[in-house]
Amino acid sequence: MPNVLCRQMLHPKPEDYRLGPGDQVVVRVVNMDEIQDTPYSVDAQGYLHLPVAGDLQVVGMTTCYCCGYGRRRKMGFAVPVGKWMQQEHRRFVESTLLSPTALKRGYFRPELLRTLVSEHLAATEDNSQQLWSLLWLELWHQMFVD
Predict the structure, then answer these.
(1) N or C: where does the chain have the smaller number of CB atoms within 10 Å of the terminal CB?
(2) Rounded to an integer, what is the distance from CA 105 to the centroid of its chain?
(3) What is the mean pLDDT of the segment spanning 85-101?
(4) For residues 114 and 5, what is the distance between their CA atoms, to the nearest angstrom?
(5) 6 backbone dihedrals φ, ψ, rounded to 5°
(6) CA distance linking residue 71 with residue 7, whole number of Å
């Protein structure tokens, strides 16, 4: 994540003020001239939606804490694999893991695999880690064994 510094509130408030929906924050991102000093509003769920940097949850942060938010060491970020599997790659997951070839391999009980997939796609359970591993196992098998 780029180094994000919330420079100032558009309407300065005491340093112990906590950010909430509707507040506006002027953002400065190091080496990102296209969004320098641009005001962004905190949405109803408490997020700032920043181009390139992504969504930052800031609701409840003090303005002082928010100013140092981007100064922490780089920690990486979560990849939204679960959402990808439920949305744009839904058909790929189903057609790969639930294909007749994959089900006939005998590695897994087909009814349990179908349950894992259907629960995840219906968003009743987050089975993204298990499905990710199974997906790559199946793709590896297709590439190197079949």
Answers:
(1) C
(2) 33
(3) 95
(4) 46
(5) -85, 100
(6) 12
